[in-house]
Amino acid sequence: MNALVAVPAGLVGLVVGSFVGVVIDRVPHGDSVVRPPSHCEACGKPLEARDNIPVVSYLLLRGKCRACGAEIPLHDVLVEIATGVLFAALALRLPTLWALPGYCVFAAGLVALSAIDLRQRRLPTVIVYWTAAIGGVLLVIASALTSDFNRLLEALIGAAGCFAAFYAVWFAVPKGMGFGDVRLAGLCGGFLGWLGLRVVPLGMVIAFLIAGLPALTLLILGKVNRKSQFPFGPYLALGALAAVLFGEAIIQSLGVF
Ligand SMILES: [Zn+2]
């Protein structure tokens, strides 16, 4: 059943990824995500429907605007592909397909937040809140449809636990981490908790493990010092997504908890 849904979920992901690209370009500047419609950044010409098909249009146009020939940013396509792959992977891996819409919203929010954090070193609060609100409502519906309200309780505990843990770190070393990371940790804790409380610490451990390597490398190369802020958002997102997709498998193969 899950395998049948993976392909359509991936296609929906490509379309949603196209919107995520708009969010990444506009939200940090406070611009509307619906107006004006998609246009070429170079010449301002609105995109025709045939030039607005995720990935396909980019390939047919060979990465150039039909009107002015300016290069279409490659990261737009990478965001579409990443979102599509995540939606398909979620369809394959989630314990129940009822939870798929909620986790797709979560994944799309994480892609947007990671891209903005990498580029501009910030995690716009509005994206965290919209992801939490829409994703949260969808998880409440998924819990109702599966009559499994215990998951909601675990989601709340996961969110509160991660928020509190990151708040403590932020409070102790306010310069080491932005408050955006604290909010994002709460968001991730909620979505990990819905899958089971033991998945929560796993996601956080994976985040710290994959963040540790580049952080240490930068420190050794002298690109940052102990006082620099490190964009932790993308690693938190990667850790959370890895735990959502493979958490149960990892826990079972380790035989821990
Ligand atoms: Zn153009």
What does it look like?
It is a single chain. By secondary structure, the chain is mainly alpha-helical. 68% of the residues lie in helices and 0% in strands. It has 2 domains: 1-93, no CATH class; 124-257, no CATH class. The protein contains 9 helices and no strands. Helix 4 crosses helix 9 (233-254). The longest helix is centred in the first third of the chain and has 25 residues, at 2-26. The site of zinc ion has 8 residues, from loops.
Q: What's the helix and strand layout?
A:
Elements: H1 2-26, H2 56-60, H3 74-93, H4 100-120, H5 125-145, H6 150-172, H7 179-194, H8 199-221, H9 233-254
Helix pairs in contact: 1-3, 1-4, 3-4, 4-5, 4-9, 5-7, 6-7, 7-8, 7-9, 8-9
Bound molecules: zinc ion.
Summarize the main sheet: none
* Computed structural class: mainly alpha
In N-to-C order, the SSE pattern is HHHHHHHHH
Tally of individual helices: 9
Rg estimate, integer Å: 19 Å
Strand content range: under 5%
Cofactors, ions, other ligands: zinc ion
Percent of residues in helices = 55-70%
- In whole angstroms, the N-to-C terminal distance is 29 Å
**Global outline:** globular
Average pLDDT confidence is 91
Low-confidence stretches: none
The number of distinct β-strands equals 0
Count of structural domains: 2
